[in-house]
Design goal:
This protein is mainly β. It is built from no helices and eleven strands.
Length: about 120
């Protein structure tokens, strides 16, 4: 089993920044790709970014390109999502996800463990 706990969400004005963290515990040696998704009210869960086990490959949604970055510190079992130039449309619950099956990183079905989510609200 793998447990994920996100933190770092909050309220920020448009143009501001936030850094989300996701601490991974349990069978961490079996985790391949780590991803971030978000879900706004009334909308489907949306892919944001993902990072490979070694950090050598990163996957980015067009909507956050050049604004968000993803990184991981395997020594700390932590994945980060740095969000800059935030926009009101970035408002959502952000979820951390882990894949232990070496699946496609682009959609929710590629992940078998999820965190509880952290709220990000961007005011205009």
């Amino acid at each position: 089993q793998v447990q994920l706990v996100e933190s770092g969400g909050g309220l920020v004005q448009a143009g501001g920044s936030l850094r989300l963290s996701c601490v991974v515990s349990g069978r961490t040696f079996g985790v391949y790709v780590m991803g971030w998704f978000r879900q706004a009210p009334g909308k489907e869960r949306e892919f944001v970014m993902a990072i490979s086990q070694t950090g050598g490959r990163k996957y980015t949604a067009d909507s956050v390109k050049d604004r968000f970055t993803i990184s991981r510190d395997n020594a700390k079992n932590t994945v980060y999502l740095q969000m800059n130039s935030l926009k009101p449309e970035d408002t959502a619950v952000y979820y951390c996800a882990a894949d232990t099956r070496s699946s496609s990183p682009w959609g929710p079905s590629g992940y078998n463990y999820w965190g509880q989510g952290t709220q990000v609200t961007v005011s205009s």
